[in-house]
Amino acid sequence: MYRALKSRFRDDQQFRLFGMLVLASVCCALLVVGRMYMTREALPAIRSLRDLFWLRATTFTFLLWNLFLAWVPYLLALKAGRMSRTGAGNLRLSVWLAFWLAFLPNAPYIITDFVHFRHVPPVPFWYDLTLFFAAASLGLTLGLLSLHEVHLILKRRLSKPVAAMMILSAIGLCGFGVWLGRFQRWNSWDILFRPEALLRDLVTVATTRHELLHAAGITVLLSGVLLVGYGLLTVMLEGRRS
Question: What is residue 59's predicted lDDT score, i.e. its pLDDT?
Answer without folding.
Answer: 75
